[in-house]
Write a structure and sequence with these properties.
By secondary structure, the protein is an alpha+beta fold. It is built from four helices and nine strands.
């Protein structure tokens, strides 16, 4: 099995840090700082305790696998991503923020889940498919339920490599300069087992696709 190619070297630096004066609301994410009381089946209640959670206007996201058959073997597309929280990680092990992932994105207001998946496939991989072509890939999941109630909704679609165009992207600085990789599904899973792919939603979706005959 060939090693994964090197991720594009897209470095991140902190230009300004407004953490000390930042408000809890008004940005891409909103912080809810609440005091909770837990009630138990025996009628007792906990003492009040603080809890911080994150909310977002567009809360749920879609995750998509575009796949093709090459010489009878299923291949999948991965895309490089740059994740600032990983690049700014304050504890060991340090990370540069680069990850191999499946395409994914938030569901915009007024979109169905399948419409969002079709739009993201065009933006991130350059495939234009109708929403009706996206097939569900198992039930949705909560990826980080201790922090945010975001759901991940999974889809897969078989695509024709001849129809692939330059990805339209979404205008984000973090989508520019990404690399796209096509590799056999079993190799993608082996890279997950070896620790070459650290994105949890990607491994889950790959394993689900592998279960389909």
């Amino acid at each position: 099995m060939s090693p994964l190619p090197a991720l594009p070297r897209i470095a991140l630096r902190v230009h300004e840090d407004h953490s000390a004066t930042a408000k809890a609301t008004g940005g891409f994410l909103n912080l809810r700082r609440v005091v909770l009381v837990a009630s138990y089946p025996d009628g007792r209640e906990s003492k009040p305790f603080p809890y911080d959670l994150v909310t977002r206007r567009a809360l749920d996201a879609v995750v998509m696998i575009a796949h093709v058959k090459v010489n009878g073997q299923r291949h999948v597309y991965l895309r490089s991503a740059v994740r600032p929280p990983c690049a700014l990680r304050s504890l060991a092990p340090a990370h540069d923020g680069g990850l191999w992932e499946l395409p994914a994105g938030l569901i915009d207001d007024g979109e169905t889940e399948a419409e969002a998946a079709a739009r993201e496939l065009d933006e991130e991989l350059g495939f234009q498919v109708p929403p009706s072509a996206l097939a569900p890939l198992g039930p949705w999941t909560f990826p980080t339920p201790g922090v945010i109630a975001e759901r991940h909704i999974y889809f897969h679609v078989e695509v024709d490599p001849k129809t692939q165009r330059v990805p339209s992207e979404d205008g984000s600085a973090l989508e520019r300069g990404a690399a796209i990789l096509l590799l056999p599904l079993d190799e993608a899973l082996e890279h997950c087992r070896r620790g070459d792919v650290h994105d949890g939603k990607t491994e889950l979706a790959l394993r689900r696709l592998a279960e389909i005959p």
